[in-house]
Specification:
The chain is α+β, with helices and mostly antiparallel strands and 216 residues long. The protein has 2 domains: 72 residues, OB fold (Dihydrolipoamide Acetyltransferase, E2P) (Beta Barrel), CATH 2.40.50.140; 136 residues, no CATH class. It contains 9 helices and 5 strands; from the N terminus they run βββββααααααααα. A 5-stranded mixed β-barrel has the order 1-2-3-5-4. Strand 4 and strand 5 form a beta hairpin. Helix 2 runs antiparallel to helix 9 and helix 5 packs antiparallel against helix 6. The chain is globular. The model has no long low-confidence stretch (mean pLDDT 92).
């Protein structure tokens, strides 16, 4: 039986010469992995992290790894792909989602929130260096445990004042809140510890180092 699916690519794993396993978040199926065939010499740009795709699912009763075909991009994400800073933030976002959302998870509303977050990053202009911090706070809410000052305080360490300010800031104030790369990285680590505690899984995000260096 075949069906249509909309998905966000979180990560991919190459298998053999012409196949990829795509680790995705789907509106219809939650977190799930699929196999796709890439023609020899063909571009894999369609399968970059955070790409939003429509595809047809070819179900296989003998395997949980179903195949995708008829794949098309829903949004070009030119704003992300043409901007080094946005692309670095997108890699951070996709890694967090890949590690935080477990296979089979289907939190209501999570897919739609993720798609809005991707499209917001794509469209942002001006100062967006704090966007990944906003993303982490909103992700906690999307997963069902909206952060509060009391909840974050045990994980804040030396970032307590900044976290208090950011929690109460509206969108414009949040985006221009003055932080250097080191402080942003420290706050991100506090938020990741908070998420790890609630999810009961370690979130060791390697791409955070890139953002720390980028905005140092």
């Amino acid at each position: 039986m075949n069906s249509s699916v909309r998905l966000i690519v979180l990560n991919s794993t190459k298998i053999g010469e012409n196949s990829l396993v795509l680790h995705c978040l789907c509106r219809e199926m939650g977190r799930r992995s699929f196999i796709v065939t890439v023609r020899k010499g063909g571009s894999r740009a369609m399968f970059l992290p955070l790409n939003i795709l429509d595809a047809e699912v070819i179900e296989n009763r003998k395997s949980d790894l179903w195949r995708l075909r008829g794949i098309s991009a829903v949004h070009p994400l030119n704003g992300i792909r043409s901007d080094f800073d946005k692309n670095a933030i997108s890699l951070f976002m996709s890694e967090v989602l890949w590690r935080a959302v477990q296979d089979g998870a289907a939190e209501e509303g999570l897919y739609d929130w993720c798609e809005r977050s991707v499209l917001t990053l794509d469209a942002l202009e001006g100062d967006f260096a704090n966007y990944h911090l906003r993303f982490l706070m909103e992700l906690a809410g999307a997963l069902g445990f909206s952060p509060s000052f009391d909840g974050l305080a045990p994980f804040a360490e030396e970032n307590l004042g900044e976290i208090r300010d950011l929690l109460s800031a509206d969108w414009p104030a949040f985006m221009v809140y003055p932080l250097n790369g080191t402080r942003r990285g420290a706050i991100a680590k506090s938020l990741l510890r908070y998420l790890s505690s609630h999810l009961e899984i370690p979130l060791n995000i390697r791409s955070l180092t890139v953002l720390e260096e980028l905005y140092r």
